[in-house]
């Protein structure tokens, strides 16, 4: 489990560096990204008593993955080494509180993030547990989304030339299909995901007149 956390931390650091080499000194408010994602998650799960709402658990899980990106970044900034960040993450992930409903766990993470201006992995773990998202699923989906982010950057996302819809389907849909067929415990799991995305990515000439 610790090795997988270290792998995710390394990938998150690499992704942040790809966007901005000086990201560690940029002063980005990672905690703010966390609590705003919490609000989006609450909407996907549903909280309005005056209308019928059906929880969209797939979107809830994707929001948890997005929050994990920001939490990993925050952990890196608050530790001298990635090893230290992994230890803190591992400790927090083992501190999930039983019996907390999902809405309350989301609010607790959001409130703590605002209060401390940091990520609390214990509250994150409680939210994961309430949403019935396992660590293995967190790992697999995080790796996949991280690789997709790299893929997007490599294919012109920042410049606006990236093609997000492939033959009528968004790239996220292709990613989900790819992840369902690969073994996340493979040593080259990240490389396999990238290669599969590359194989499915449409040639730009297809979209030219």
TrEMBL record:
<dbReference type="Pfam" id="PF08761">
    <property type="entry name" value="dUTPase_2"/>
</dbReference>
<dbReference type="InterPro" id="IPR014871">
    <property type="entry name" value="dUTPase/dCTP_pyrophosphatase"/>
</dbReference>
<protein>
    <submittedName>
        <fullName>dUTP diphosphatase</fullName>
    </submittedName>
</protein>
């Amino acid at each position: 489990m610790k090795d997988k956390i270290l792998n995710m931390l390394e990938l998150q650091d690499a992704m942040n560096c790809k966007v901005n080499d000086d990201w560690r000194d940029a002063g980005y408010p990672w905690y703010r990204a966390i609590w705003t994602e919490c609000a989006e998650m609450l909407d996907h799960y549903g909280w309005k008593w005056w209308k019928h709402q059906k929880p969209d658990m797939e979107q809830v899980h994707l929001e948890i993955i997005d929050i994990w990106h920001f939490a990993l970044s925050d952990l890196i900034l608050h530790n001298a080494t990635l090893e230290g960040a992994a230890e803190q993450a591992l400790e927090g992930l083992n501190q999930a509180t039983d019996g907390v409903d999902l809405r309350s766990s989301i609010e607790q993470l959001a409130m703590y993030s605002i209060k401390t201006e940091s990520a609390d992995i214990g509250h994150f773990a409680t939210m994961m547990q309430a949403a019935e998202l396992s660590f293995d699923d967190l790992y697999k989906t995080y790796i996949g989304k991280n690789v997709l982010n790299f893929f997007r950057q490599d294919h012109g996302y920042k410049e606006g030339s990236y093609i997000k819809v492939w033959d009528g389907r968004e790239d996220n849909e292709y990613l989900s299909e790819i992840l369902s067929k690969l073994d996340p415990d493979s040593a080259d799991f990240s490389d396999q995901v990238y290669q599969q995305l590359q194989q499915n990515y449409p040639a730009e000439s297809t979209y030219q007149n």
